[in-house]
């Protein structure tokens, strides 16, 4: 069965995840994380992508990205993935595949969903039991978004900019969001959309993505399609 084409639209945020092959590790040392982030910065710039949030876990990566061209995130991930695999194979004297095939992704509605998706990404180390607070994890965008850490390539999305009148107000408002757990239903919704290559948002947003791309952007109903009832017999008099 052919794979469903990815859903990607200009300027629409895209949440994507790339896993290590067979869920094996793809980062082994601090230098690996630093190299990946350096190249992410480089290829985001060359393809015109804006990185709004990220986290590098031991065996997978989450990104929240938008771009003026629908093809740009794919171009960025291809160049980044190939260069990083070459580095890992050379450094650790290994060969073969590092990534679990294609990355998975979902277009994300800005209103009501984008900040939830950012929190989902930056809370990954907390859910995994690696740290108590996202600020304690060095390989994510939390410190940039919530604490204004300098020297980062993270670009705030326009929705993030509405959190306050200046950077300090926006950071404080964003930190306040982390005082409460992310709703489990939202966590499940983000996972379903990303793993299934569906739109993350309201039904209206999904319909808009479907109309814009001419491809189904929402899950179909479970079960086989219902058969049409047989035609009524015609009686001739």
Automatic annotation (TrEMBL):
Pfam families listed in its UniProt record: Y1_Tnp
Listed InterPro entries: Transposase_17 (IPR002686), Transposase_17_sf (IPR036515)
UniProt GO molecular function: DNA binding; transposase activity
Annotated GO biological process: DNA transposition
Protein name: Putative transposase
Residue segments, region Disordered: 216-237
Ranges of compositional bias, category Pro residues: 228-237
Annotated ranges, domain Transposase IS200-like: 9-124
Origin: domain of life: Bacteria
Species per Swiss-Prot/TrEMBL record: Aromatoleum tolulyticum
